[in-house]
Design brief:
2 domains; 233 residues; 0% strand; mainly alpha; globular
């Protein structure tokens, strides 16, 4: 019997880690999530790679509760940042994801760390609305509140195009792309001037009904509901 390849194994580890983060969001008990997840898959680096794939959302429970992360969680998170720096030819989404993780490390795992040099968002300003929604879905971990005037460039780019993001949300729902729909909905809970005719709350409920068994969908929906309720994520 063939052994599962590394990409297949990594996908499974990411799903397991995401499930644990969602569980921590629901229970409020987020201590030691990352060390346990990394140690549970051996020493071949897949655990750290899974943290890097999840990005800043790996520390979302502590950010959501506005409590300092467990020292072990932060240490693993920082290891993942250091282990997987973006290459010179990295995609803009990879650079932004890495930037968001570094920002959390600089703040000790809390929201609102030092901004540092932001990557460019020029590609988002000219992207067709379909591409814009896809790119924002990849960067959904950045969809958390920030102090006025300190929003990352990705937020500012999305805030200039709320109607396009709303169109992307509807398209994702119609295509049954629940992960993209949940991620777009997460962004829409933060953006100004979202059309009232969108019916975002009912749309999120439908996405939860249809796709909520996927941990990545569940994670974005949990963040969206917290944001919509005004929780200090």
């Amino acid at each position: 019997m063939e052994q599962p390849g590394a990409p297949t194994r990594l996908t499974g580890v990411v799903q397991d880690l995401t499930s644990q983060v969602v569980s921590a969001l629901r229970s409020g008990d987020h201590v030691g999530v990352l060390p346990a997840a990394v140690s549970g898959v051996g020493d071949d680096g897949l655990g750290l790679a899974a943290v890097r794939v999840l990005g800043a959302d790996a520390l979302l429970p502590s950010v959501a509760l506005r409590t300092p992360p467990d020292a072990g969680d932060l240490a693993v998170f920082e290891q993942a940042v250091r282990a997987f720096p973006p290459t010179p030819d990295a995609a803009p989404t990879t650079r932004w994801s890495h930037w968001a993780m570094r920002r959390l490390v600089s703040a000790g795992g809390a929201a609102g760390g030092a901004d540092g040099d932001e990557p460019s968002t020029a590609w988002l300003d000219v992207a067709p609305w379909q591409v814009l929604t896809h790119q924002l879905a990849v960067l959904a971990a950045l969809a958390v509140p920030a102090e006025p005037g300190r929003e990352p460039g990705v937020f500012r780019a999305a805030a200039r195009r709320p109607v396009d993001v709303a169109r992307g949300f509807v398209r994702a729902v119609r295509r049954r792309d629940w992960q993209q729909a949940a991620a777009a909905g997460r962004w829409l809970t933060l953006l100004p001037d979202v059309p009232d005719t969108l019916g975002l709350e009912r749309g999120l409920e439908f996405v939860e009904l249809m796709g909520g068994t996927d941990p990545r969908v569940d994670l974005h929906l949990r963040a969206a509901w917290l944001l919509r309720a005004g929780a200090p994520v």
